[in-house]
Predict the 3D structure of the following.
Amino acid sequence: MGEIMRKTARPYLTLFGLALIVAVLGRAALAFAGATGILAFDYISASGVAILDVVCSILTGSAFVAFLFAAGLVLVVSTAGPVLGAALYARGERGAGRPVVAFLWGWATALVAIVCLVVVVLGILSAVQVGSMSSKLPGLPVIAVGMVVFAAFIGTLLAAAQLVLVACVERARAGRSLTASLLVACAGCGAVVAVLTVGTFAALNQVSVEVPALLGWVAADVVANLLMMAGAARVACRARAAALAAAPAPARS
């Protein structure tokens, strides 16, 4: 048993390391948001408050617990999508790992995650809350289009995550440490995502949202995701070329 645990330790230690990196980055982002007033950690019962305070005033008691489940489901689906794409690439599935394919499946994954969130959330709100929200929201077709567009936005992030994983796989095939590649990629790309997430949330969580500022942050998010996709694809190509160059030439008969 000890030998089995030793042989299987590295993948689990890598997972634990990735989780700790995400936790540290998230804690740093929350600390910055709290120190700068972007995020308030106390409940404010007043009119004219920011979006997050309104949401928190609705999610109380069992509704809050149910929303935690919904949020966890969204995160699990969003995380599993890029990992599945990278696993298919590592297995040699045709077309897996291409930027366009990664984006399309990232888009689909984000859309399914949003649908799951809506399904759960609609079950935790009362009829009065649903009616009140319905009177303030646009029609169903507009909401559906908005969900598709937002899913495409998140799809660029999931595509970037998948291509970064593909690059790590190619580096491992070229003789580099997969663990080190994953940890470095998680820290570097995670820091970029954390900064952009704080900025985007700061622009959104306002009493009166300034649309130009919000769109500017969204554009920055998309550009960063595309740059990460391009950078990961380049790293993967270079690692693939290095692996081919290091491979022994076939013997001539």
In short: The two ends are 47 Å apart (CA to CA). The CA atoms of residues 59 and 68 lie 10 Å apart. The chain has a mean pLDDT of 86.
